[in-house]
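$ ./design --mode recover --in tokens.txt
reading tokens...
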């Protein structure tokens, strides 16, 4: 039965971002440039943190992992998007489509948990500064990062397992630029209402749990910051503002896409571009522009 399902639809066709051939050619250069900057920016942050001994601390270890996840998340969809701007028929194999779904949810789910870990790191640093080095030791940091990868993998495989054996017998047109569950599941030749609810519940549990934990963590941190001296508070507030900005930029599009899906096609596509292309680009920029230690490390590297 599984082989029959896959043989019915051996490939899917993307509609892409737009129908205009001229606009697609115009978008090729900016999206290629965005991806290049994303790759260089995130890998630069990773290498800078690895090579600069002043940045060998838990916060920057977690930041390096975040940059690596953003690099991976962007690489799942953007290269295919840019090459498809040159193609009249934008196709992807059944296996390639399933791989995209797996990787998007793997890196996306892992990033959600990683952002919670970063919030926990800031909570310990600001609310329990005397115990920071003992709580956030090397083993603890590695364990937290491994946990984020494991949860991301479990989330992704559970999502994929629910759609892998669906009967796809046509149509095979995905109204987007990459395979994602809300769009692909519509193409199944069966009633998927119950399955959609189950898949949304799976994503909702992970996203809502992480978002609530983040809200609690940063609320507690900000309350604690307000009770401290102005000098210490300003530095802590600057760091937390960067983290909160990243959290909002990442979670808001995800919430609208998976937990409160809009019915307007261009809104769907805009949100998909935002969390797969724009957010991975903004994260390194936000941290480098607002972080004095990163700026100093760049100056040391230049000089």
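writing sequence...
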């Amino acid at each position: 039965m599984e082989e029959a399902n896959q043989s019915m639809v051996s490939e899917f066709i993307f509609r892409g971002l737009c129908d205009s051939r001229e606009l697609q050619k115009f978008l090729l250069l900016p999206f290629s440039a965005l991806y290049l900057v994303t790759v260089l920016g995130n890998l630069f942050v990773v290498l800078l943190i690895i090579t600069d001994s002043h940045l060998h601390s838990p916060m920057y270890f977690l930041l390096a992992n975040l940059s690596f996840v953003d690099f991976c998340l962007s690489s799942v969809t953007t290269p295919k998007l840019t090459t498809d701007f040159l193609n009249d028929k934008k196709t992807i194999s059944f296996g390639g489509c399933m791989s995209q779904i797996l990787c998007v949810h793997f890196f996306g789910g892992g990033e959600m948990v990683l952002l919670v870990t970063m919030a926990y790191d800031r909570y310990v640093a600001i609310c329990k500064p005397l115990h920071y080095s003992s709580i956030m030791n090397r083993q603890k940091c590695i364990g937290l990062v491994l946990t984020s990868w494991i949860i991301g993998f479990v989330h992704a495989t559970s999502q994929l397992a629910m759609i892998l054996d669906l009967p796809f017998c046509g149509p095979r047109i995905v109204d987007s630029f990459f395979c994602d569950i809300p769009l692909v599941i519509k193409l199944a030749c069966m009633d998927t209402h119950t399955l959609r609810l189950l898949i949304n519940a799976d994503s909702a549990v992970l996203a809502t749990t992480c978002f609530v934990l983040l809200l609690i963590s940063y609320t507690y941190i900000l309350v604690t910051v307000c009770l401290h001296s102005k000098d210490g508070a300003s530095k802590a507030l600057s760091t937390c503002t960067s983290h909160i900005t990243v959290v909002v930029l990442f979670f808001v599009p995800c919430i609208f896409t998976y937990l409160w899906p809009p019915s307007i096609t261009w809104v769907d596509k805009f949100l998909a571009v935002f969390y797969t292309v724009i957010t991975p680009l903004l994260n390194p920029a936000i941290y480098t522009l607002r972080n004095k230690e990163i700026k100093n490390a760049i100056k040391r590297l230049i000089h």
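exit 0
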